[in-house]
Amino acid sequence: MNIPQIRIQSQSAKIAMETSAPVQTIEQPHAQMQLHQENAHITMETIKPRLTIDQSQAWADMNLKSVFRMNAEAAQRSEQEWFQEMAESSQEGDELMMIEHGGNVMAAQAERHGELPTYDFNIGYIPSNFSVKVHFEPGRLYMDVTPQKVVNNTQVRKPYIDSQRGHVSIGMRQQANLQIDFVNLQV
């Protein structure tokens, strides 16, 4: 038995696309740089070192003194010797006042006055050690530096941009198709 049939046959449409890529060119010229910096301001202040050498004691050890110092020392020595002589005279007077106690006081005093003085002698250095006085004050350096700012006159250049748009073409590669057939349609 033949049953009537409808036969449908379809074909899908197909799209064709063609593209051309976009082209972009960027060119960046170098910037113009102008940098300038003034010299820093420098202020320097120095305090000179100071060396002091005092050799007055060394000269005095060699008996090369000023007139004023020699006079002062002679006056002091004379005063000491005067006090010592006064003390000795007073002591001898006291001894003579007590002559009644016996002893040979006058002979003892004469013997003391007749003796030669003894002098202590030792090795001496002229001038004496460390008689030259040295004093040193170190110098100083004060420095003040004031830096100057950098003057920046840089000019930026804009980039050159060239772009070409891409292109897309769309077309039909295959048309849609629909076929309908009727089979076994006999009445």
UniProtKB/TrEMBL annotation:
One Pfam family assigned to this protein is DUF6470
Q: Which InterPro entries match?
A: DUF6470
Q: What is this protein called?
A: YviE
Q: Which organism is it from?
A: Falsibacillus pallidus
